[in-house]
Amino acid sequence: MATFNDDSHMALKECPYNPDHKVAPTKYPLHVAKCARSFETPMLKTCIYHAGHRLPPNQYYKHLETCSYKSVGNAKPLDQEKERRMNKPLTTKVLETQEEEENWTF
Known about the structure:
Blueprint: E1 13-14, E2 22-23, H1 28-37, E3 45-46, E4 54-55, H2 57-66, H3 80-86
Antiparallel strand pairs: 1-2, 3-4
C-alpha cells in the first residue's frame, strides 16, 4: 500500500517574494529558492540566523535584533563585508568556448 506525504493538515506559509503564494512548510525552502531566482522579484536580504527568513532591506536590521533564532546554537553576527557578500545578487558568466578543428587523420 502506498503512503503519501499529505501536507494539507499543516498551516501554509506565505512566500516572502509573492504574498499570493501559500506553500506547505515542507516545500517552503525549495519554493523560496525558486522565487528568489525569478527576475521579477525584488532583492530581499537573508537573515544570518535563519536562511528561511527573507526581508526587505529596510526591515533587515530590526529583524536581526528580534530574530527568534538568534539564541540557537553558536550563531553570531557577521561582519559587514561578509554580510554584503552573502546578500549580493547572483550573477552568471557565460564561458566562451574556443572551437578547435578536429583532426581525423592519423
